[in-house]
Design brief:
About 55% of the residues lie in helices and about 10% in strands. By secondary structure, it is mainly alpha-helical. It has one domain: Rossmann fold. The strands form 2 sheets. The chain has a 3-stranded parallel β-sheet with strand order 1-4-5. Helix 5 packs across helix 6. The longest helix has 17 residues. The radius of gyration is 14 Å and the shape is globular. The relative contact order is 0.20.
Length: about 120
Amino acid sequence: MILDTNALSAVADEDPEIEPALRDAEFLALPVIALGEYRQGIGKSRYREEYEAWLNGLVSECRVIEITEPTTEFYANVQNELRETGKPIPTNDIWIAALCRQYKLPLLSRDRHFDFVRGIRRIEW
């Protein structure tokens, strides 16, 4: 299962509602995009050191998935499909959706705009 940035925040905050979804996952994957967004967010936090230490521990336990040349084809397809349907989503989320398609993994996210992307399954908590 791929974690979106809001799922990453919920895990960091020990949100008990997210636990069932995490238990059901075969493994957790962190897209580099979500890691960048999360790091940008904690960069402004007064608890930055604690969050960075926590994140480094999580990264060592998860699969980090990167954008590769094949990902660009998935990205282009998702972007074109969303444009055709008139349902744009943020660029970073298009990359995350592309990774979901590429690796055929569900996405743990509260962002409902992912539901506009055909071929991916969003899990909400």
